[in-house]
Write a structure and sequence with these properties.
Blueprint: H1 5-54, H2 59-112, H3 116-168, H4 175-200
Helix pairs in contact: 1-2, 1-4, 2-3, 3-4
Length: 206
């Protein structure tokens, strides 16, 4: 036997509203990561140029700088995929909220004019709402997996940045500027890592 409409609505409306706010926050954080990835791309180009100036002493650093540039491009693609999932989540949460509003209207109508046929309409609307909530749950799981994949990508970026710091030490006369650049890489990647960790802890996934 299904719950009264009022119980269903009272339980779902606050959750859906909170989910919408959480999704918006996740989206803002993803945009911030995209901006940082653009910085990495520019930094990598500068590092590649610096490595060329340093010559054979910085060959390893140059290779790693190029890999970091590829990493920044992969990261942007990953964030783009996350952004698409976020958009779909927003759409689905909006649909769930619309379902709740419709149930409220049906409840009000049933209270003022108890028509037997209205009960069937309510059941259909409840079934449709359950379908939409299940679809949202699926998107939630997809988003969580995509965040995990992005985090693994950033872990790789961290390894590249730390390896660049090691290679910088072999840069002879360019060791100091190479070390500065590699240190910036490491700091920026760590910033992204912290952001993604925070996103993974979002209440949206609970």
């Amino acid at each position: 036997m299904s719950l009264p409409v009022s119980s269903t609505v009272n339980g779902q409306a606050p959750q859906a509203g909170a989910d919408l706010l959480r999704i918006v926050r996740i989206n803002e954080e993803i945009k911030a990561v995209v901006r940082v990835s653009l910085r990495i791309n520019i930094m990598a180009l500068n590092a590649i140029f610096l490595a060329k100036r340093a010559g054979t002493a910085a060959l390893g650093f140059g290779v790693l700088s190029n890999e970091l540039r590829v990493f920044s491009q992969d990261l942007r693609s990953s964030m783009g995929a996350l952004g698409e999932l976020i958009h779909r989540c927003v759409t689905e949460v909006s649909v769930v909220l619309q379902d709740i509003r419709h149930l409220c209207l049906l409840e009000a109508a049933a209270g003022t004019s108890p028509v037997p046929a209205l009960a069937a309409v309510v059941r259909r609307r409840e079934a449709l709402g359950a379908e939409h909530r299940e679809r949202l749950a699926g998107l939630r799981r997809q988003l969580q997996r995509a965040l995990e994949d992005a985090f693994q990508l950033v872990e790789l970026g961290g390894v590249l940045a730390k390896s660049a710091k090691i290679e910088a030490a072999y840069g002879q006369g360019f060791a100091l500027p190479l070390a500065q650049v590699s240190g910036e890489f490491d700091g920026v990647v760590e910033e992204i890592r912290s952001s993604l960790q925070a996103l993974q802890r979002s209440d949206f996934f609970r």
